[in-house]
Amino acid sequence: MKKTKAFTLVELLVVISIIAVLLAVLMPSLQKARSMATRTVCTSNIRQLTLAWRMYSDQNNGKLASALTGKATDWWMVQNGVLTNEDGWVGWLGKVIGNPIKPTSDPVLQTQEIQTGTLYPYVKNVKTYGCPVGEKNMMRSYSIFDAMNGCTDALTSVSISPSGMVYKKLTEIKRPSERGVFIDEGISTFVSWTIPYKAEAWGWEKIPLRHGKGTSLSFADGHSEYWTWTNPGTIKGDMNSGIGNKDLQRLQKAAWGKLGYTPRPN
What is the Cβ-side half-sphere exposure of residue 208, based on CA atoms within 13 angstroms? Predict the structure, then answer.
């Protein structure tokens, strides 16, 4: 009778060990590839949104879409004295129960938020408004910089966004290839994206760390890029890493066109 040859226990253990080693070697590469893939999606998304942003301006006598969210008559707009009659680039329904400045996790309401925004007629794919790996249960993860018709000191009551540097029209923007419009911050917020002009500090927004050690952002001329951070404090998300931080200065220049302070040595 012919005997069937089988693997010994030692041989099986050797095979399993080899597979484990291969997985350990390949996993970082696979994670990096996945991160780069989602990074590409994000830079593409915000580029599409920026082209829509420019089209909106072209069809509205050069006027920029409001970087805020919701209707001009929404409670928080009225409460903060925003009487511009400008609806936001996306809507804002907020948390149905509890704190209304918290984003809703209801996908139906989130879809309505996107569909009631001023840019939706130009970009009707709701998946374009958010990163594939953004905050859990959030369909939108992108925001517009304060300077692009967003929050001003009059709105925030703090010296963060100088009102004289917040643009209302596309033609007002100098060096559009250097001025940020959309940024991937990974979460849904009801205001525009804030970074101080006069302070060597990050302010109150979390440092954007997306798809590795950086984030995606777009510019007023219509192109988008992925910026990789170099400061160890930035990479760790340390909000106290502002002094002498080149990453901070780079973002502030994208936001405001220049620094409103003299940088101190690190």
Answer: 27
Q: Which of 117, 106, 12, 28 is nearest to 72 (CA)?
A: 117
117 occurs within a structural domain = yes
Burial class of residue 165 (count of CB atoms within 10 Å of its CB; 0-12, 13-18, 19+): middle
The answer to the question of residue 25 being in a domain is no
Domain coverage including residue 224: 39-256
Question: Contact 174/254 with Cβ under 8 angstroms?
Answer: no
Contacts of 95 (CB under 8 A, 6+ apart): 101, 102, 103, 104
- Give 175-189 pLDDT, tens digit per residue: 999 999 999 999 998
CA distance 211 to 131: 10
CA 51 to CA 38: how far, in whole Å? 20
* Number of domains into which the chain is organized: 1
**Of 181, 185, 241, 240, nearest in space to 211 by CA:** 185
Which residues have CB under 8 Å from 86's CB, separation 6+? 66, 68, 72, 149
Euclidean distance between CA atoms 259 and 252, whole angstroms = 6
**In angstroms, rounded to a whole number, what is the distance separating the alpha carbons of residues 29 and 15?**
22
**Rg (the chain; Cα; Å):** 23
3-class secondary-structure state, position 208: coil
Reported as a single tens digit per residue, the pLDDT across 2-32 is 555 666 766 666 667 777 666 666 555 555 5
> What's the pTM?
0.83
Question: Residue 21: inside a domain, yes or no?
Answer: no
Residue 133 domain-assigned (yes or no): yes
- In which element (H, E) is residue 232 found? helix 232-236
- Phi then psi dihedrals of residue 53, to 5 deg: -60, -40
**Residue 231 DSSP SS3:** coil
